[in-house]
Write a structure and sequence with these properties.
Elements: E1 8-17, E2 22-24, H1 25-29, H2 36-43, E3 47-49, H3 57-72, E4 81-85, H4 96-104, E5 110-114, H5 120-133, E6 139-147, H6 157-160, E7 165-175, H7 177-180, E8 184-192, E9 200-202, E10 215-217, H8 219-240, E11 250-253, H9 258-267, H10 279-282, H11 289-299, E12 308-315, E13 319-326
Parallel strand pairs: 4-5, 4-6, 11-12
Antiparallel strand pairs: 1-7, 2-3, 6-7, 8-13, 9-10, 12-13
Helix pairs in contact: 3-4, 8-9
The structure holds oxa(dethia)-CoA (UT7).
Amino acid sequence: MIHPAQWRSVITGVGGYLPQCILTNYDLAKIVDTSHEWIVERTGIHQRHFAEENELTSHLCAKAAQCALKNAGKDINEIDLIIVATASPDLTFPSTAALTQKLLKNSTALAFDVAGVCAGFLLALQVADNFLRLRQAKAALVIGGETFSRLLDMEDRRTNVLFGDGAGAIVLEGMDPEKAGDRGVLGVHLQTEGQFSDILYTDGGPSLTGKAGKIRMSGQEVYKHAVVKLTESAVKMLAEHNITIDDIDWFIPHQANVRIIESVAQRLKLPLEKVIVTVDKHANTSAASIPLALWAATQDGRVKPGDLILHEGIGGGLIWGSALVRY
Ligand code: UT7
C-alpha cells in the first residue's frame, strides 16, 4: 500500500479561452485621460479581452475546461472534482464551479469555488492537489476564470487600464508515483495578511452593499508588496525543495505588470528568456492569468513535458505564494 502522501497529482491537459472582443490602449484613451505610451511604460500592457454582455465567467470557464479536456484526451465524465478560482462569479451563489459543471454536462463531480483573487489559481491548485494526493478524487478540473471588466470603474484610469477577461484550465490527475515519474505538483505555498485588505479591494459586496462594487487599489503599495513577497516566496520554495534557480526551466507568474515580473526575475537571478509573459496581450486577468500563460506556452511549444516550472501570484487579501510543478 502506497502512503497517500506519496500519491502525485500531474497536469495532463491545459486549456484556455479569451473572449473575442479586444480593447487596445488606444480604445481606452478615448474613454479616460490616458495614453498607449503611459500604459506600456508603466505596465507592459498593449491590449485586453473583454467579455460580451451575455458572456459570463462560467461560460469562459466551460470553454477553457473543454479545451483542457481535449488536450488531456479526457472525457468530462471522468472528472470528479471541479474547482473554479474567481473573484467575479456569475452570481453570489450557487458557485461558478456548479454553473460551469452544468454547462459541461457533468453531474457527478464535487464542484466549488475558491476566493484568492489574483492568487486564486494557485489556491485552487493547492486544494485540488491535496484532494488528489489523499485520493479523495481521481481527476480534477482546476480553472481560473474572470470577467473583471464587470468590476471596473470605467472612469478610474488608475485601474481600468489594467485588467481583462478570460479563463484558463488544467486537468490534474492523481497518479501512482511509478506512473508519474518525476512529474507532478511538487509544492504549493500560500500566505495571507488580512491587515493589507484595504490596499486592493472592491467597494461593494453582498453583505456590505448588496452589489459587487468596483475595484479600488493603491497601486504603488501593492507593487511594493508584490516584488518583496513574491521574491521571498520563491526563495523559500526553492530552498524547501533543495533546488537552485538554474534548475527552473520556466517562470510562469501571475501577469499583473511586466515591471513586477521582471523585477522579481532579476532579484531571483532568473534570465528573462525563461519568463513567460502574456500581460502584453491579456492584461491582468486575475485568477485566469497563470493558467492562460501556461496554455500559451504549451501551445507554442516552449513548455514541454518534464520541464520544471515556478509559478507565483499575489492578490487582494493580501494573499500570495508560489508553486513548483514538474509539467
Ligand atoms: O494583480 C494584483 C495586483 N495588482 C498589481 O500588481 C498592480 C500593482 N501596481 C502597479 O502595477 C502600478 O502601481 C500601476 C501600474 C497601477 C501604476 O503605476 P505607478 O508607476 O505606480 O504609477 P502611480 O500610481 O505612481 O501614478 C503616476 C502618475 C500619477 O500622476 P501624478 O500624481 O504623478 O500627476 C497618476 O495619476 O500617473 C498617473 N496615472 C495615469 N496616467 C495616465 C495613473 N494611471 C494613469 C493612466 N494613464 N492610466
